[in-house]
Amino acid sequence: MKGKQRRKKSRGAELRTIAERTFQPTDLLTDSEVAQYLRLTAHTLRCWRSARSQTGLRFIRLGRQIRYKFSDVQAWIESNAHGTAA
Questions:
Q1: Region of residue 61 (phi > 0: left; psi between -120 and 50: alpha; otherwise: beta)
Q2: 13-79: CATH number
Q3: Residue ranges of the domains in the chain?
Q4: Residues 6+ positions from 31 with CB-CB distance below 8 Å
Q5: Which of 59, 48, 51, 80 is nearest to 40 (CA)?
Q6: Which of 22, 42, 61, 86 is the most buried (most CB within 10 A)?
């Protein structure tokens, strides 16, 4: 493919993209989308799943694919909040 070069997005651009996106509660997110949203690595999510850790972050298995419902991600964040509300 002469003359056409594919530009790779920088990590900062990916984070801005995920942060700017509006999710609906029923949206199903990929590992990488959830990792970007939580500012974790996809590897961390895989470890939590495989270790059956007590993180409580629910996931959905669709054949070989893993998805996370956005409302479950939000609920997990709220359940891990500590301290007093402002």
A1: beta
A2: 1.10.1660
A3: 13-79
A4: 42, 45, 46, 66, 68
A5: 48
A6: 42
Give the DSSP H or E segment for 74.
helix 70-79
pLDDT number for residue 64: 93
Q: What is the tens place of the pLDDT at every residue in 1-24?
A: 565 666 555 555 555 567 667 888
> Band of the pLDDT at 40, cuts 50, 70, 90?
very high
Q: Which residues contact 35 (CB under 8 A, 6 or more apart)?
A: 41, 42, 44, 45
Q: Hey, what long-range contacts does 17-20 have (CB within 8 A, 24 or more apart)?
A: none
If you count them, how many residues does the chain have?
86
Quote the Cα angle for 65-68-43, to 5°. Answer: 70
Residue owning tokens 């509660």:
25
